[in-house]
Input
Amino acid sequence: MTAADPAPAPLLTVRGLTVRFRMPRGRSVAAVTDAAFDLAPGSCLVLVGESGCGKSVLASALLGLLPGNAEATGTARLTDRHGSTDLLTAPEAELARTVRGRRIGLIPQSPAAHLTPVRTVRSQLEETVRELTGTPRGTALRAAAVRTAARAAFPADHLDRYPHQLSGGLAQRAATALALAGDAPLLLADEPTTGLDRELVDRTTDELRRHTRAGHALLMITHDLAAAERIADRVAVMYAGRIVELADARRFFGTPGPRHPYARALLDALPDRAFTPLPGMPPELGALPPGCAFAARCDRATPACATPPALRDGVACHHPVPPDRETDHARTA
Amino acid sequence: MLELRDIIAGYDRRTPVLRGVSLTLAPGEAVGLLGPSGCGKSTLARVAALLHRPDAGTVVLDGTPARGWRHRAPRAQRTAFGVLFQQPRLSADPRLRLADLIAEPLRATGRPAEVASRLDELAPLVGLGGDLLTRRPHEVSDGQLQRACLARALVLRPRWLICDEMTAMLDASTTAALVAVVETYRRETGAGVLAVGHDRTLLHRWCDRTVHWTDLAPAPANPGAA
Output
């Protein structure tokens, strides 16, 4: 990505996305609060944060897969060659028939659980291609399924295997092939590298990167910061249901580094940096403090933090680390 | 000293996963074992923790060879180990509140009198505050559950800690926090740690020495190999 590129029109525009879960006895859980971001074709936004910060709920909201006791407000507008749709208000029939698989491909967290265990990869791929593209059964369908497998770098000689006969990496590619079958412009990857070893993580992220180069927009959700650094154009850091920093990936992982104290502390927890954990635990999403949710764990907190900070200039913090400051955690060469 | 000598182990005698593996841990030492998925490093961790009976070879624990495995291991040997697994959900009884999960080893070994005092010590150490101890596993996050599993592994004050991909499911901050707890325990008690994983950066940072999987086994018994 070079600075001279004119920014293409965003494919996905999210504004004020808020998800609340209604719980027994009138309680409510604030899973996502006021999320806003844009995603353009050919680019990758990575959503990072600790487990339980609301990342996966945000993905489910975009796919219309929230459970019945959830309420999503705000807008999430998907604009592509098929038209423009607000994913939060579109009826389930429209989401099922025209959005999921066709306009948004989901690369799941656990391919082993996503694939049907009693059918071969070929049979699942052919069914998906037939359903999504209308290709009738026959040689054309067989060829289309093989092509789709090849796009996900799934080896053709493994197509007749069952999911349990695949290694973790090949199962991940089979799931990716299913996500690519409908040629959806937006790919949503929810923790696609959990449980894979480092070489496989690198290979999976490189393959996802390749698909964004081919023109897909990719929203990847992960807690693996090393994988995020490898693939992201932009990084959104989520804490307690809010996006607290939205930054260019090179500036975020390199110089000047993150500006939100939480993002900074999260990077410093990496074993190749300071390897120091954040103090305390993230707050419960059912009992968030009225002000900044990070204040209790933050060394820059002041009385001003009793009011929630708005996202300004890519940072939601009353006392962000100044952007011109030299990083104090320069990476060892 | 924890010594594994010429271990042959697996799940089918005809095709063992481990073929003549040897590894020695000194007290107070942290050893990182690196290897890709499916190479057998978890099987080795289970053999070292007396949870999997090898087909051949010996495990020597402070000079005494292990004779029994799993529930047949003598209590003194069995309780010398604390074990942490990759997936806290699969290693926690879903019916137990976290406090009971942590206390279970004390109850199982006839020391219920120590439950209250050990809980008071361990809960703040692993960062489980507030009402978390009264919750059941489905009410907490993976990171919080792994914190409870770490407290459970430490509750009998083991001389050896076997951590099998302890942090693979966890975010960077929880990883750093749990490793810090293990390291504090090692420093204070002189326990030995075997950390199994595939994250090179993490194990190099954490351990005194790291060994790669391929360094443990003798060269394959294949005369034709170069």
Q: What stands out?
A: Residues 114-183 of chain A form one domain. The mean pLDDT of chain A is 89. The first helix of chain A runs from residue 55 to 63.
